[in-house]
């Protein structure tokens, strides 16, 4: 049995819907700026007016409680307005990645049984390619530059009633499709209470005063259609009465310009964003003093990258952990406590966590041993949409089996060492990719790295490293092999090294190792 961590104190979480949570903020901050998009600033009061107008228009179109409405939009003011208008009616939001190709879009529209579809006007060709294979009640194009169908709907008289009566613990607010990094994308059903709970949990880990909370400016380039951006940026910012600074995509020069001119106080990011900012800083230093809190999620942040970022700013990057099935956050390094580089921290309030044996999932492993990370808490999903067998395999006796391999130290801090499906077994030895990747990132000239297992007739599997080289540095396979041999057991040293121009990634910067493995099998 592992030692229990020094943990956050439990908190009280109200049983309420997401529209009710938003109404609370509007009542307190009606005149304050809720969203900034370029030169456009929208107050909390104006935002609610537009939400209620769009809700009435959707009601007129027949949208009702239990309907599924999809959003395929980048970060823009139309996203939160559409999101809350759908929830206002007791309907469910289906979030769609704007980078999806026609087959991926077809899967979600069919699988989620979508009836109404908000789509960026520029993406209509993607829908046109599959429109004959789906049956939708209404398509609502959204333009960021000219009047569109959306603008007509948002200019109607606001709905005369309050939000639809919602059962927060039962009614599904969001169907969030998994990234598909290890297989077919599944629809995660998150209730109103799941997301409200995770919002309160995240808020309670902050140490700011009420005034600092309400004057927060959150630079939001992580996509809102991803659960990380949805909860940790949008819903949390509105709950705190802050300003959501929206950027449609990550462009390092634009992000630096926003940091220098708008002085954001918070920046939730992912490792690839921090890598780009670090590289840009080496060429042109910029002022980071306004930022009180960097957070990193979606994928492990290499320790070497964290150390480099600490050299740019006295503010540490607080690494946490989450997954779509948990709304998403379950762990975080404490803002006002010990922060351990390479660790995902400790469970957030009202969350239990342990590491169990991979074979049965029934026995908790000893301190320092590797097993599967399992969590329990009010943020854990209701289940997968229309997938009872997968739900039963993932949710067992109230515990969410994450599929991630982890270990816990003597202080109760957790460390992710890889995915169960990414574990490499070479000559009978377990190789955790993150161990090898951490060594690779410490090699001068390695910009990005990903380690996977590939078939080997003698060893069963062998270790292969895909590496993106820095343009400013010379780097050879011999150098990499030499440095790995100095720091790793022989069976962990990559036997195959491949230099590539870029690594395939999801919209939030998570490396798609599945694509790397698939490309190997096709050779």
UniProtKB/TrEMBL annotation:
- AMP-binding enzyme C-terminal domain: from which residue to which, for each copy? 435-510
- EC main class here is ligase
Q: What's one GO MF term for it?
A: long-chain fatty acid-CoA ligase activity
According to the entry, every stretch annotated as the AMP-dependent synthetase/ligase domain falls at 23-385
Its keywords, alphabetically, are: Ligase
> One of this protein's Pfam families, by short name?
AMP-binding_C
Q: Which Gene3D superfamilies match?
A: 3.30.300.30, N-terminal domain of ligase-like
Q: What is this protein called?
A: Long-chain acyl-CoA synthetase
